[in-house]
Amino acid sequence: MLRPTLFLLFAGVLQIVSAHFELNYPATRGFDETKEPTFPCGGFDTVQTRTQVPLKNAFVEINSGHTSYSYVVNVVAKNDPATADFSTASELVQVSSGTRSYPQAACLSLNLSNSTSITNGTNATIQVIFNGGDGLLYQCTDVMFVDSAPQFNQSMCVNADGSSTVAASGSSPAVDAKEGKAPSVTVSSSFLLFVIVCVYITV
């Protein structure tokens, strides 16, 4: 029988292996880890309450269970986008992309300056596509872009590695995402399980 300490360590490894991501702010349409691979919004295809998001210095805040991942953030500027709209070049606007090499909180700022379809009062859906190495995962949030959004919580923009979250107006987070980050070490689940077994045998 596994000793309690080793059991907790083993449970922690399983949690890491199954780690996905969550869209924390603006609030996700819904979260179900088993449905996250479902295109385009992780199994939640109905428009929810909209958050007012500023046209400048906008961002989304995610929480990652992976230590290294890539991401893409898209916007569909429609009141009630259909699944097909997330695959249509004329409807889809990419506003962010990049990589991160640390887990937990990450602030992904959005570059809206190159889109003529996103203006004051535009209803839209933001789609976050996340790839931690085990397949594409999806989450969405519904928003209204406005010139001024006093209720938009800028304090939610946090990076768990302590790197700067300040982005110039209209800048893209993809530029910042690879800079100033602590290096990470990717450890396979099989290696971690091997270590646990070795520890158990020797104690």
From TrEMBL:
Residues in Copper acquisition factor BIM1-like domain copies: 18-161
Topology within the bilayer: Lipid-anchor
Superkingdom assignment: Eukaryota
Signal peptide segment: 1-19
Transmembrane segments: none
Keyword terms, alphabetized: Cell membrane, Glycoprotein, Lipoprotein, Membrane, Signal
CDD domains associated with the record: LPMO_auxiliary-like
Compartment annotation: Cell membrane; Endomembrane system
Primary location class: membrane
Full protein name: Copper acquisition factor BIM1-like domain-containing protein
Organism: Mucor flavus
